[in-house]
Design goal:
Strand order of the largest sheet: 3-4-5-6
Distance between the termini: 46 Å
Largest sheet: 4 strands, mixed
Radius of gyration: 20 Å
Shape: elongated
Low-confidence stretches: 181-196
Structural class: alpha/beta
Mean pLDDT: 84
């Protein structure tokens, strides 16, 4: 990582991506090039295609410092989604943190199957127990405009993460979020937050 301390003018998008790919490979990171691209895209606030179109663009010192911190975390095997604080699921961007599990692509198949079944039901009611990031219920509700849903979690921290995407979804679905603290108190304690 000391190589990144070179002067700003010597690091371009292409140069830093190639260096990071090799660094991640040497550290045994599974998808070194993809991870480098995703992390740099997040720092620059641009999509990955932009990186290829602007391969010779120099990085500013602030961008380089922020990227260096991301690279350190990834080299220690911290998941990319936790580093960036988000994960795409069914075309929507979801906030993630170590308080929730990272939404997985194979879960999208299950959600799509449920949506197919629920299209035949008038005003379906959905319940997502252990909602985590909220990816499942929010994705389903955005595809089922007549549905209503309740997201439940025993972690207030996880529920706070689940509510974040609803602040940026253009047509946020109607969701009741419930924090159930049954484990801590031995009985159900429910706090509800209605959005929209």
């Amino acid at each position: 990582l000391n190589d990144m301390n070179k002067s700003t003018n010597s690091w371009t998008i292409g140069g830093i991506l190639n260096w990071t790919r090799q660094y991640f490979s040497d550290k045994g990171v599974e998808n070194p090039r993809l991870d480098a691209e995703v992390l740099l895209s997040r720092i620059l606030g641009l999509d990955r295609l932009h990186l290829y179109v602007h391969f010779d663009q120099p990085l500013e010192q602030t961008e380089l410092r922020a990227f260096r911190e991301f690279v350190k975390q990834r080299a220690m095997r911290f998941p990319v989604a936790y580093i960036t604080g988000s994960k795409e699921f069914m075309g929507l961007e979801f906030a993630v943190s170590p308080a929730v599990l990272i939404p997985r692509p194979d879960t999208e198949i299950l959600v799509e199957g449920a949506i197919d079944l629920l299209h035949n039901i008038a005003e379906p009611q959905l319940l997502d127990i252990g909602t985590g990031s909220g990816a499942i219920i929010i994705s389903a509700l955005t595809k089922l405009p007549d549905a209503q849903g309740t997201a439940v979690d025993i972690s207030a921290e996880a529920l706070a993460v689940a509510l974040r995407p609803l602040e940026v979804v253009e047509q946020a679905p109607d969701v009741v979020a419930a924090y159930v603290d049954a484990l801590r108190h031995g009985r159900g304690h429910l706090r509800q937050v209605r959005l929209q």
